[in-house]
């Protein structure tokens, strides 16, 4: 039985529900090649969504409304200090592919040697927030 099905002709009230979510993801990779070239790749994405709905009822009927929104912002930056060779570019691409794969202890290790790379630093952060609220008010006349 829905909460609104037991309403008498003399009651009035309001029901509302609202939900919001936000997710932010950021990653940064800095690679130094054996020749001293430096490459920095950064990625940031922010996603927001919201939904709200409400219904009002009274002796003369009901009214309902809903609203939703979605926003996504993505930023990507690449900075190269030096002159990359084709081999260095291939090794950096291979490294990104390895970092993008989830760790699986049963998976074979990569055959890429990444010989042209001296070092790299990688940072990844993901944050999710969710807020949900619901309410119902009724008045007997």
Task: Provide tags for this entry.
141 residues, mainly beta, four-stranded antiparallel beta sheet, 1 helix, 4 strands, 11% helix, disordered N terminus
Secondary-structure map:
Elements: E1 11-33, E2 38-58, E3 61-81, H1 86-100, E4 117-140
Antiparallel strand pairs: 1-2, 1-4, 2-3
Structure notes:
The chain contains one helix and four strands. With 141 residues, it is mainly beta. It has one domain (11-102, 113-128). Strands 3-2-1-4 form a four-stranded antiparallel β-sheet. The radius of gyration is 27 Å and the shape is rod-shaped.
Helix content: 10-25%
User: Mean pLDDT, as a whole number?
Assistant: 88
Q: Structural class, from secondary structure content?
A: mainly beta
Morphology call: rod-shaped
Order of helices and strands: EEEHE
Low-pLDDT stretches are 1-7
Strand order of the largest sheet: 3-2-1-4
Radius of gyration, in angstroms, nearest whole number: 27 Å
Tally of contiguous helical segments: 1
Into which percentage range does the β-strand content fall?
over 45%
Biggest sheet statistics: 4 strands, antiparallel
Counting structural domains, the number is 1
DSSP, total strands: 4
Short description:
The protein is mostly beta strands. It has one domain (11-102, 113-128). The chain contains 1 helix and 4 strands; from the N terminus they run βββαβ.
């Amino acid at each position: 039985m829905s909460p609104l099905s037991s309403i008498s002709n003399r009651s009035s009230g309001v029901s509302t529900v609202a939900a919001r979510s936000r997710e932010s993801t950021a990653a940064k990779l800095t690679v130094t090649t054996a020749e001293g070239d430096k490459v920095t790749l950064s990625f940031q994405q922010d996603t927001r969504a919201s939904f709200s709905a409400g219904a009002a009822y009274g002796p003369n009927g009901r009214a309902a409304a809903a609203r939703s929104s979605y926003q996504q912002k993505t930023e990507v930056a690449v900075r190269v200090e030096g002159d990359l060779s084709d081999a260095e570019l291939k090794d950096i691409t291979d490294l990104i592919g390895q970092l993008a794969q989830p760790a699986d202890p049963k998976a074979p290790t990569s055959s890429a040697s990444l010989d042209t790379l001296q070092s790299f630093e990688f940072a990844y952060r993901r944050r999710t927030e969710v807020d949900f609220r619901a309410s119902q008010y009724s008045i007997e006349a």
